[in-house]
Structure formats: structure tokens, C-alpha cells
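Design job #97: recover the sequence.
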């Protein structure tokens, strides 16, 4: 009984660690490994299970929870509704301010909505100059000086 209690406690702590990792590395994946660990902990508290069986239960319950719940939970929590059109509307055509000089090929920084962003331009942009965002590449903003538009 003591060994079973210890196994359950260990799996509980592993699950807690996975839940904490979800906050450190968002992506909504570690959460399901936490569920798998807690399912294993719950079974280990009540049933004497070998280590191999515990690992199989952990992997199986984690994979099943990802497969069945991830997309549904993302929709419920509002994380899956952002598409590229919404992102384009948020950035493209908007005005930002160069924080540093933007050198063609080397890039620089712009301030947009109170946040500093990496930026690139085909033309030299002086610090303090206003630019228009013409494209986004992940977290990189492609800009043009307003004087050439």
C-alpha cells in the first residue's frame, strides 16, 4: 500500500509539473500530459499497477486526451479563432514609428501599439520616422517609410 501511495504521489507531482510547464511554454500541449499523469496517479492510488503498466496508462491517457479534447478546448477558450485574415487586419496598413534606424538587409525596430517589433524595409528609415506596415512574417514587420507611399 505504501508503494502504491508513493507511486500515486509521484505521478501527481509529475502532472503538477506538466501543468506548470504549460504556463512557461504555452502551446496547449503540456496540459494533456498533466491529465495523463493525474489519471495514472488516480489509478495508482486505488490499484497496484506495475511501472510498465503505469507508463502505458500515462502515454495512452495523454494521447487520448490530446486527440479528443485539444481542438474542442481551444475553441471553447477562444485560442483557435485567430486566422491570418484577422492578423492582416490587425497590422497591414497601420502606422508604426521607427525606434531605431532600419537598414535594408539588416533591419531595425519599430514601435506599434506600445510594443517593440523587429522590422525590415527595402529603404533606409531613420529613427523616429513613421512607417506603414505592408506585410508580416511571423513576428517580423515589413514596413515602408510614409514619405515614399
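Job complete. Output follows.
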Amino acid at each position: 500500500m505504501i508503494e502504491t501511495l508513493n507511486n500515486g504521489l509521484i505521478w501527481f507531482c509529475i502532472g503538477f509539473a506538466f501543468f506548470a510547464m504549460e504556463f512557461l511554454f504555452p502551446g496547449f500541449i503540456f496540459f494533456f500530459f498533466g491529465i495523463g499523469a493525474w489519471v495514472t496517479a488516480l489509478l495508482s492510488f486505488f490499484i497496484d499497477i506495475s511501472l510498465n503498466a503505469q507508463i502505458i496508462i500515462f502515454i495512452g491517457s495523454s494521447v487520448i486526451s490530446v486527440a479528443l479534447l485539444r481542438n474542442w478546448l481551444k475553441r471553447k477558450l477562444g485560442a483557435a479563432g485567430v486566422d491570418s485574415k484577422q492578423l492582416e487586419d490587425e497590422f497591414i496598413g497601420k502606422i508604426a514609428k521607427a525606434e531605431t534606424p532600419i537598414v535594408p538587409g539588416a533591419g531595425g525596430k519599430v514601435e506599434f501599439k506600445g510594443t517593440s517589433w523587429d522590422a525590415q524595409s527595402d529603404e533606409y528609415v531613420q529613427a523616429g520616422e513613421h512607417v506603414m506596415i505592408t506585410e508580416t512574417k511571423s513576428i517580423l514587420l515589413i514596413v515602408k517609410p510614409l514619405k515614399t507611399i
